[in-house]
Amino acid sequence: MYHPFNWRGWQDYGTGQLGDFGCHILDPVFKALELTSPLELTAEAPAMKPETWTDKATVKYLFPGTSRTAGETMKVTWYDAAGVRPPADALTSLPRSATLPGAGSVLIGEKGTLIIPHVAMPVLYLEGEETAAQYDVVDGVDHYVQWADACRGEDKTTSNFDYAGPLTETVLLGTVWIRFPGQTLKWDANKLAIPGFSQAERFLTKEYAKGWM
């Protein structure tokens, strides 16, 4: 019943496609723009079933602006379903020849648009034209070795808890909001609370089996 691949679709064991892929696909966005906890979220999704996650959802995050964003806030939208894409009016900076990956991120800036496929090199478009971007050669890092070095106190992992914790929290907030589609709700990161909507807060944590936490 709990097939090895489909474990993520069961609420008992997984957090749906957003929980599975979100930390990978939103990582370059979160890191490059130096994002912090979102201010509010809105989700659109079919009604949840008792045991499984929906296979289609759109989650809109509103973040505080940073030194790397334009304006006081920054919008990030997660599209979750086969064939679902950002609306055409959001992609007017891209030429017709541009191809969006099946999974990945699109950063729309004031001067250009950056497409970041999940498992391929990014492509930068400036004024509607693809650029021949040059990338610095970076020495490969083995994440197993990073982990061992960090355990010995010799180094810090790239995806350390100080970074990965807030990123994961942000992703998983989206899975909570999917349960309450059509509602724009605030998030109080300091209090780990959803002001004025306590019925959603029961999904923020749970009682773990004794001896495991």
UniProtKB/TrEMBL annotation:
Under the heading PANTHER family, the entry gives:
BCDNA.GH03377 (PTHR43818), NADH-DEPENDENT DEHYDROGENASE-RELATED (PTHR43818:SF10)
The record's section on SUPFAM superfamilies has:
Glyceraldehyde-3-phosphate dehydrogenase-like, C-terminal domain
**Which InterPro entries would you find in this protein's record?**
Gfo/Idh/MocA_oxidrdct_glycsds, Gfo/Idh/MocA_OxRdtase_bact_C
One matching Pfam family: GFO_IDH_MocA_C2
Q: What is this protein called?
A: Gfo/Idh/MocA-like oxidoreductase bacterial type C-terminal domain-containing protein
In what residue span(s) does the Gfo/Idh/MocA-like oxidoreductase bacterial type C-terminal domain sit? 6-61
